[in-house]
Amino acid sequence: MNPDKYSAYCKEHADEFRDELRDDASRALRNWPGKTAALLLIASSLLSWQSMIRAGNPDAYKALFTYAIPAAIAFGYPLASLIFSSLDKYSRSVLDFFLLSILFGFCLTLHYVFEPIDAGADASSIYLALSGQINFAILMTTAFSYHATFGITLLRNSLYTLLTAVLIYLIDPQYLAINAIQVLQGFLGGIIVSWLFFARIQTRFYYKSIDADTRQHLYKQLSKLVYPHQLARIKAGDQLEETMPVAPAQAIINVFDIQNSSAIKHEKTQSFFLEIFRAFSQICMMGYEHNPLKSRAFRLKETGDGFISAIGYPFLTDKADTLADHAVETALLMFRAFNSEVDRFGYGHPIKAAMGLAYNSVQGTFQSSGIRAYDLFGDALIQAYRYEEMRKVPVIAELMREHARQSGLEHYNILIIQEVIYNSLCDRYKQMFSAIDLLNINYHMPQDPQARYVYFHLLE
After folding, report:
1. Which of these, 144, 346, 347, 367, has the minimum number of CB atoms within 10 Å of its CB?
2. Contact between residue 37 and residue 70 where contact means Cβ atoms under 8 Å apart
């Protein structure tokens, strides 16, 4: 253990440490420590009352009320703090007053016990019966403190002890003289115990704060790997493999790729790609909600100069449009974001991209060993790759170039979609696309042999 390290940390985080002490003091008053102390004081009052009755003390009944104030504080504070929530801010001061009232109650008990001595009764038996009680009373009321620095606790204990000694002197100087060593022992014992108590709180606060900082750091790092709803479910006790859908479904896969990316010669090429993917990820997360699980799209992976996303699985779409309309709208948003990043990059030559959209079966899965990364597989992914790569087929590329010349485009982005997606589009989006009859060009689509047409849209 290194007390200096804990003390320095508490000073650096004084506000948090003070709040921790305030909460501890409030819990002590609310829970069993305060109630246990009150029950002990009530038991002490009853025992003093019985002892004084046996001694024939006419003030015996008064001993029942000497600890009325601390008992009322112990039992009344929980209710009072519920009614007046701001009372918790002063819990440390309330606790100090509670302990001080115990010392006053002890001195008041002594006053009633010693009254027969003033009337001429024998004092030796009374002094003997009360021997050592000063030690215990001072020790127990100075041992606990919730002040942010031990210097305040030391000052408080000194004042409490001095005040107790003065009151006892006013009640019976001879009793104080006989028990002077007991007063000193109680004071020194209180200092030792209060220091150990304070050091324990410092140590606990240090490790609790460090542990909280570590957990917060781990939480932030984990949030880079999984979605917020996954974090919430893991925190609730679910296994990672239960946090994402794995059942078979139908979805549209979007495969994005930068055309001729190897020809981009720039020292910040990789940063340029990362900015594009960051923008795409933000688009995917638009409308993200936990229950039901939905967003504009699901970011599947980044592949060097490519980006793959899924529409309709594992997240539901965030709009009521058809899946095809939603996928095309998302693709157009991505192209817009891509063009913005290209303009910001300021490269000397045009940079264009291509996307392929395919609708088919897809399924989620977690890797069986090692890091349990979530992934998708299925025909939709394979076909989306193929549709994006169709721009490289010479006959199709030539048809696109001819269409671009007619449209006045020299450099262009390409969006290629599957026939089933085109047929599902609204008229507004259908008008954007041009058809290629695969039979006329004698081309058979790999992994999609039933395809008769393919549709493309060129945009700046």
Report:
1. 346
2. yes
Given CATH 3.30.70.1230, say whether it is the number of domain 240-459.
yes
Reply yes or no: is the peptide bond before residue 314 cis, omega within 30 of 0. yes
Amino acid at 36: T
Look up residue 243 and give its amino acid: T
Residues 6+ apart with CB under 8 A from 23: 88, 91
| 3-class DSSP assignment, residue 356 | strand
> Is the CB of residue 328 less than 8 Å from the CB of residue 417?
yes
| DSSP secondary structure string for all residues of 216-276 | HHHHHHHTTTS-HHHHHHHHTT--GGGSS--S-EEEEEEEEEETTGGG---TTHHHHHHHH
**CA pair distance 263, 260, nearest whole angstrom:** 6
How, if at all, do strands 298-302 and 306-311 pair?
Answer: antiparallel
| Euclidean distance between CA atoms 400 and 354, whole angstroms | 12
Mean pLDDT by 10 residues, the chain (460 residues): 75 89 92 90 90 84 93 93 88 94 93 71 63 84 90 94 94 88 92 91 87 78 83 86 91 94 89 93 91 90 90 86 92 95 91 95 87 89 93 93 92 94 94 93 85 92
d(CA 102, CA 71) in angstroms, rounded, equals: 9
Ordered by start, the domain boundaries in the chain are 3-220, 240-459
**22 in Cβ contact with 146 (< 8 Å):** yes
432: its two tokens: 């954007």
